[in-house]
Amino acid sequence: QVQLVESGGGLVQAGESLRLSCAASGRTFNTYTMAWFRQAPGKEREFVSALSWNGGVTDYADSVKGRFTISRDNAKNTVYLQMNILKPEDTANYSCAASRRNVLLRNANLMDYWGKGTLVTVSS
Q1: CB atoms inside a 10 Å sphere around CB 47
Q2: Quick one: DSSP state of residue 23?
Q3: Which residues contact 42 (CB under 8 A, 6 or more apart)?
Q4: What's the rounded Cα separation, in Å, for the pair 74 and 33?
Q5: Mean pLDDT for all residues in the chain
Q6: For residues 68 and 46, is the Cβ–Cβ distance under 8 A?
Q7: C-alpha dist (Å) from residue 66 to 59, 85, 99
Q8: pLDDT (0 to 100) of residue 66
Q9: 33-39 and 92-99 strand pairing
Q10: Where are the beta strands (DSSP E) in 1-124?
Q11: The pLDDT of residue 118
Q12: In whole angstroms, what is the distance from residue 124 CA to residue 114 CA?
């Protein structure tokens, strides 16, 4: 079992930055593919970014490419999402997820573990 706890959300103005963290429990964190998803009010959950077990391969949604950076520190059992040049349309609840599959995934239904999320609000 893996437990995931996100932090770092908050209220910022457009153009500012935030760094989200996702702390994981468990000894096998470094074997999991990790991902971030977000869900805005009244909208479906959408893929944001994913990262391979060793951090060597990444994937980003087109809407965040060039602005967001995903990374991980396996020694700290933590994955990060650095979000720059935030826009009002980035407002959402951001959740991290873990998958035992050794491939990058954009399908939320294929993720094995989820955190509860952290809220990001970007004002214009």
Answers
A1: 20
A2: E
A3: none
A4: 11
A5: 95
A6: no
A7: 11, 9, 24
A8: 98
A9: antiparallel
A10: 4-7, 10-13, 18-24, 33-39, 46-51, 58-60, 68-73, 78-83, 92-99, 113-114, 118-123
A11: 98
A12: 30
Residues of the chain with confidence (pLDDT) below 50 = none
Beta bridge partners of 75: none
CA geometry: angle 94, 100, 103, nearest 5 deg:
85
Residues in the chain: 124
The residue written with tokens 């407002």 in the block is 91
Residues near 7 by beta carbon (within 8 Å), at least 6 away in sequence: 20, 21, 22, 23, 118
Tell me which residue has tokens 């998958």. 99
Alpha-carbon distance of 56 to 123, in angstroms, equals: 33
Of 48, 29, 24, residue with least CA distance to 100: 29
Q: Which residues of 92-112 are buried (b: 16+ CB within 10 A; e: fewer)?
A: bbbbbbbbeeeebbeebeebe
Residue bearing tokens 């990262």: 51
Edge-first strand order for the sheet with 68-73 is 4-7, 18-24, 78-83, 68-73
Instruction: Name residue, tokens 């509860």.
Output: 116
